[in-house]
Design a protein that fits this description.
Shape: globular
Strand content: 5-15%
Strand order of the largest sheet: 11-12-10-13-14-9-17
Bound molecules: adenosine-5'-triphosphate, magnesium ion
Oligomer: single chain
Number of helices: 28
Largest sheet: 7 strands, parallel
């Protein structure tokens, strides 16, 4: 029997209402995620539902991993076979089985942003956009928006006279065709194609409906229309769908998430049970008070009364620093003293910011102080050039039609196949309508290539063919990759082409990490294959994790992350930094989108990550584009009642203020003098 006594009565109602639709709409830290885990345990242990019939969808891979671990603690191996994943991983799972019905091959590649941009550039080139008027990023963003709205190339129409939108409309069909010719799909396809598969093939839909008899979705307020449709289709048969969320934490409106979905859930599912949770178990009274006050300034919301039994706790510290350097040194000093004095560990501390660029001074100071940290976001491991190059080899071997990867490695490491040759081969392959990989093997038929180069192309083709066969045979994957990298001279190439040997060494180490990661994957999974490994790597990218998780790191480290990635998490000690106008609320929201409410929700998310203590910081000045600029306090600071806050000016800020007072006094006297004639 799984005992539900750790839950309060409302939570228990939610956890045990297993048949029929259920909505849990509740504020931060009220135990929504806990309800999902207990509900799964209840289904397995008390209702003897086979784990295969359970699907739980989380917002990030990290959240999925945490939930999986939690389930292991609660039900152990009896949970084996259930699906706990993100929407994207769920899409992969479904597509791997039946994507052939949509005309793709089973070993499809998943393209990351840089691969996607490569295809967009190619499509733009074909339109003779010789002036390079269009920005590939913004074209891709628009196409992605269309996909999230489930618009096919045929259905996508311009909404106005925006030239770049018109170009996106024009290019979308070509982009999609290019993807298909590479036997590749992008992240948005993971949802869009899955929806199409389920919609067009009733037998496929029926299969998954029968499998996922109990469905749970965490962070439901941030699902976009295509994700919503996917879940609705899967749940249509059994209607055992439980969604939990908080409209006050909807922070992905800019990516097409639609908060109305959670507010309309009751209407979409007749007879839906609604449970509100009001007790917050996460934060102290002061922290919760501050959060409640801030969010009450949003008008369009479902008002929730969130309370806590824990006492007020320490006041919120508000630190005013002279500039961003002082902000960072102060925060790092405080982290050091807190960890020393209050017996908290580095792993209990998080620094949260609005934009990833803010992390730099904090990283520098942490490094300077010798404090371990994990950076979530920014330049990620799998985005690094050498890592992408080495992975491109593996991607090509797993899917020779993946032309973006093939083009990446054709002359890496350098083997004397130049740009013009590559262009010629590419051209020829298109004219002949054959894949690039095949064209390489038929270089003899292509005009205008010298005999010497032809031999090199042929050798490259033979090498790849040999490796494809080699990898298809049984054997230890990491060993094979190690041998492959040696054979092609990856290390030598890095040492040869990079002047700074320390940089080269770091890059070589990163490549080693790829092999290590594969070895780890192999030892943890009995069914490890190269495509599965690549899939894991690509999906991991999505969370923007650099390196590894805190736990995997095997050491105790401070977490640095953006407010967006902090959703759903909690830390005993939180530093919320850069509370200035044009940062939070972000400039874009003030001047372009007029979406201050969404920024306020971000502020709410930030405050409510803290369990025991919250520190907020702001600067009087900040370097921007290399120049010191005066900064103004965020409007959200005024929304926190004064009595909750302990205001502290650090040295630099005080000095700056004195200067300012002097200057003001000077101005005053000058003015007086003027007045006196
Ligand atoms: P968020 O909106 O930030 O995602 P949430 O509503 O999902 O928050 P949880 O993360 O599930 O909240 O819970 C917050 C904290 O409160 C967790 O540490 C959890 O273990 C604890 N908690 C939840 N319910 C209870 C309870 N009934 N008794 C004790 N602790 C609880
Ligand atoms: Mg949660």
């Amino acid at each position: 029997m799984f005992d539900l006594k750790s839950l309060n009565p409302q939570q228990r109602t939610a956890a045990t209402h297993t048949e029929g639709p259920l909505l849990v709409l509740a504020g931060a830290g009220s135990g929504k995620t806990k309800v999902i885990t207990c509900r799964i345990a209840h289904l397995i242990e008390n209702k003897e539902v086979p784990p295969e019939n359970i699907l739980a969808v989380t917002f990030t891979n990290k959240a999925a991993r945490e939930m999986q671990e939690r389930m292991k603690e609660l039900v152990g191996s009896r949970g084996k076979g259930m699906t706990i994943s993100t929407f994207h991983s769920l899409g992969v799972k479904i597509l791997r089985q039946d994507i052939r019905k949509l005309g793709y091959k089973k070993n499809f590649s998943i393209y990351s942003t840089s691969d996607q941009l490569g295809l967009i550039r190619q499509a733009l080139r074909e339109t003779n956009d010789t002036q390079k008027k269009f920005d590939p990023d913004s074209i891709l963003w628009k196409i992605s928006g269309a996909k999230n709205a489930l618009l096919t190339p045929e259905q996508y129409r311009p909404t106005g006279f925006d030239e770049s939108e018109q170009m996106a409309v024009a290019i979308y069909p070509r982009y999609q065709a290019l993807l298909k010719s590479c036997n590749a799909i992008d992240f948005d396809d993971l949802i869009m194609l899955t929806v199409r598969l389920l919609r067009d093939f009733p037998e496929v839909l029926a299969k998954w409906q029968q499998q996922f008899r109990y469905i749970m979705v965490d962070e439901y307020q941030d699902t976009n229309p295509s994700q919503y449709l996917l879940i609705s289709m899967l749940a249509a048969q059994n209607r055992n769908i439980c969604v939990v969320g908080d409209d006050d934490q909807s922070i992905y409106g800019w990516r097409g998430a639609d908060v109305e979905k959670i507010l309309n859930f009751e209407h979409d599912y007749h007879g839906c049970k609604v449970v509100m949770l009001e007790q917050n178990y996460r934060s102290t009274g002061n922290i919760l008070d501050a959060a409640n006050h801030v969010i009450s300034n949003n008008t369009k919301r479902k008002v929730k009364a969130l309370w806590t039994e824990s006492g007020p706790g320490r006041p919120i510290d508000l630190i005013v620093a002279a500039d961003d350097e002082e902000e960072a040194t102060t925060v790092v000093e405080r982290i050091e003293t807190t960890c020393f004095r209050d017996k908290v560990s580095y792993g209990d501390c998080a620094i949260l910011y609005r934009t990833n660029a803010q992390s730099r001074p904090f990283e520098e100071q942490l490094r300077f102080a010798g404090i371990p940290y994990v950076l979530i976001g920014g330049m990620q491991f799998y985005e690094r050039k050498e890592v992408k190059d080495s992975l491109a080899w593996l991607r090509t071997i797993a899917n020779p039609e993946d032309e973006q990867s093939l083009l990446r490695i054709i002359n890496f490491p350098k083997r004397g196949i130049g740009e013009t040759t590559i262009l010629k081969i590419n051209q020829w392959s298109m004219e002949q309508g054959i894949p690039l990989f095949e064209a390489l093997g038929r270089a003899a038929e292509i005009d205008g290539i010298t005999e010497a180069v032809r031999a090199k192309v042929q050798a490259f083709h033979d090498l790849l063919s040999g490796e494809i066969a080699n990898f298809a045979a049984p054997g230890h994957l990491a060993d094979k990759v190690d041998r492959l990298f040696r054979k092609i001279g990856l290390e030598e190439e890095l040492y040869r082409t990079i002047d700074d040997q320390a940089t080269a060494r770091r890059k070589v180490e990163n490549i080693e990490q790829v092999i290590n990661s594969l070895a780890g994957f192999e030892s943890s999974s009995a069914k490890a294959t190269l495509p599965l490994f690549l899939e894991k790597v690509t999906l991991m990218d999505e969370d923007r994790f650099s390196g590894k998780d805190k736990k995997e790191h095997g050491r105790d480290a401070v977490t640095l992350m953006s407010l967006h990635s902090s959703k759903g998490l909690e830390f005993p000690m939180v530093w919320l930094v850069g509370l200035e106008e044009e940062i939070l609320p972000h400039k874009k929201s003030i001047y372009e989108d007029f979406s201050i409410d969404e920024e306020r929700r971000l502020m709410y998310v930030g405050i409510t990550r803290a369990r025991r203590h919250l520190t907020i910081t702001r600067c009087l000045q900040r370097k921007q584009y290399g120049k010191m600029q005066e900064r103004h306090p965020s409007r959200f600071l005024e929304e926190i009642p004064e009595q909750l806050v302990n205001l502290q000016q650090v040295a630099g800020a005080q000095a700056l203020n004195e200067d300012e007072a002097e200057k003001m006094a000077g101005d005053f006297f000058a003015k007086m003098k003027g007045m006196l004639g």
